[in-house]
Design a protein that fits this description.
Length: 322
């Protein structure tokens, strides 16, 4: 076992109260990793109090149900944060309440936020990192834990299409499927089944997206169009990966107006220019080629799109022969 894994296991053994958090606006990797780790620690150490916290999102219920906690009653607690690049994006915990903090994450390391950092930018997903931890230690795994880990890896690697996918990813996937009897067809169904109105909405995006001469594609989705297709402000983020491998697009971005929070939710993907540094200027961030931002003013959305268009131009000029 590697030194970092030994240190993580030692801390888990040491603390009786353990809280596992992840990022706001959760995705399958974030939720699946926190529930898999919680269930594994519970299974291995039944006497410990282990909680997975954060906003419960209805469509992710099949990963497991999240816990409600009263932090003031949790003394000497260990906090494990998963899939979170920066403090501001941690959901559902008062960071300062905890005695010791561990972070396990695969986002680019933008700030040190924990006493113990296990950050691997090259990993497909936090679920891949948790799988490594569990498989190389004596932490227990069962069918449901393995199913969650499988789903997080598949979701964040975009079905092994992204360049973060390595032979190690496939080795882990093989072990999970073989050793824990995963019914992968059933699992894919959970991850990818969607209502027809979302497919229609995706068609609307394809038909109405503006593609610039620099190969940047963008669309602004307002309240009216989301009402027309009966989708919410999170719908566009579910389909942004479906616009990969389009010849005319180096980078593409959707803006969805979230009326409840009076905010523009921006999803950005790229197969050319690096976008997370641009997103970070607009209250956002993420991975080199998969980022997002939350913006208050529409003018700022235009500015961001402008910056992305310029990044595409620059990329084009630098890769003329490509
Ligand atoms: Mn992730």
């Amino acid at each position: 076992m590697s030194i970092i894994f030994k240190k993580i296991i030692k801390s888990i053994k040491q603390y009786e109260n353990i809280v596992i958090a992840r990022h706001i606006g959760p995705d399958p990797d974030a939720v699946a990793s926190q529930i898999a780790l919680r269930d594994s620690i519970r299974k291995t150490f039944p006497k410990k109090n282990v909680y997975a916290v954060g906003t419960q999102v209805a469509k992710f219920k099949y990963y497991g149900i999240l816990d409600k906690i009263d932090e003031s009653s949790l003394n000497d607690a260990l906090l494990i944060i998963l899939d979170v690049p920066n403090k501001a994006r941690i959901d559902g915990v008062n960071y300062n309440h905890y005695k010791y903090v561990i972070r396990i994450d695969h986002h680019p390391n933008v700030e040190e936020i924990a006493n113990l950092e296990f950050v691997d930018e090259k990993s497909t997903s936090t679920c891949e990192m948790i799988s490594e931890l569990l498989l190389s230690s004596n932490l227990k795994i069962d069918n449901s834990i393995a199913s969650n880990l499988f789903l997080g890896i598949v979701a964040d690697s975009d079905r092994f299409l992204l360049s973060s996918t390595t032979p190690k990813t496939f080795k882990i996937i093989t072990t999970l499927i073989e050793n824990y009897n995963l019914d992968i067809n059933k699992l894919y169904y959970k991850l990818y089944e969607r209502p027809i109105n979302e497919v229609k909405f995706q068609s609307y995006i394809a038909l109405n997206m503006i593609v610039t001469s620099n190969n940047f594609g963008y669309i602004k989705l307002d309240k009216k169009v989301m009402e027309e297709f009966k989708v919410d402000a999170s719908a566009a983020s579910n389909m942004i990966n479906n616009f990969n491998f389009i010849k005319e697009l180096y980078c593409w971005a959707f803006s969805s107006y979230d009326e409840k929070n009076s905010i523009y939710k921006i999803n950005i993907r790229s197969r050319g220019p690096i976008i997370n540094e641009i997103a970070s200027k607009y209250n956002g961030g993420g991975h080199k080629y998969a980022s997002g931002a939350r913006i208050k003013e529409e003018q700022e959305v235009d500015n961001l799109f402008n910056d992305l268009d310029n990044a595409c131009l620059e990329y084009k000029n630098n890769n003329k022969s490509a």
